[in-house]
Amino acid sequence: MALTVSSRSVRLAVLAGAGVLAATAVYAVTDHADASEGQAPPAAAATAGHRTTAPATTPTGPTGPAATPSAAQAPPAVADKAAPATTPAARATGAAGEKALAATRVTARQLPDRTAQKWKELAPPSTRQPGPEFQLNECVTVRGATGWQQQGFISAHKTPAVQDSLGFPDAASARAAYRAVLTGMKDCEATSRALQKRYGLAADARVRQTATAGEAAAWSRTWTAVQGLSAPGAQANHIYAVRRGSVLVLLHFDEWDSAAPRSYDPKGDADVLAGLTR
Questions:
Q1: Smaller CB count within 10 Å for the chain: N or C?
Q2: Among residues 230, 218, 226, which one has the least CA distance to residue 254?
Q3: pTM here?
Q4: What is the CA radius of gyration of the chain?
């Protein structure tokens, strides 16, 4: 669905990941958007050449120069903590599939750096049907998922964390998706720097793998981000990927320099992965 969005709505588009809850955009990004005025690259940077395909219940872009990831699609003026957006298509994954997705869910108390961030859940988890492609960030695209459960969180600094659990037909398909994440993150520093150069920013992106454990891995990316799939400006992104049977669990949270000093030490990422694999 193509929507015309105002510059203000474009500012609400800046959460990393695909299909982020509209409530997250309202609660997490409004203040950051104001602080970032003047930092954003041209309007075309909202798409940055990336395509995200998401369920019909969550309209997505890009569909034009001002189009943005799904979080930007004109969230309501007041974000209600509505019931999960479960559609007949989502239920087609079957009870066993939904149970597997639900089993991977984390709570606010399990998120990294919870003492400093004081994470809170934004709404009940949303179960939905994924599109052909799921874009985690500028570096990672996942294909072939048949089920999708998402949970959004908000920090005391109004910065976001999002867990996406993607179900696949079998363990082999989930393993292939996990390997695609590894490939994308391996090249993420080069991908991020190329994007920065494209929009006239200093190529300062640095990506490092911070922990591994079997089919589980964590990364940290620090950079001056291009607006679009990420918020504009200096920040750190923390990314986690775990394969659990036929489910790929993706978790990420952001530290925006304009919101608060960075407080998380990635040395704790091994413990985060341990929690996600249980």
A1: N
A2: 230
A3: 0.72
A4: 17
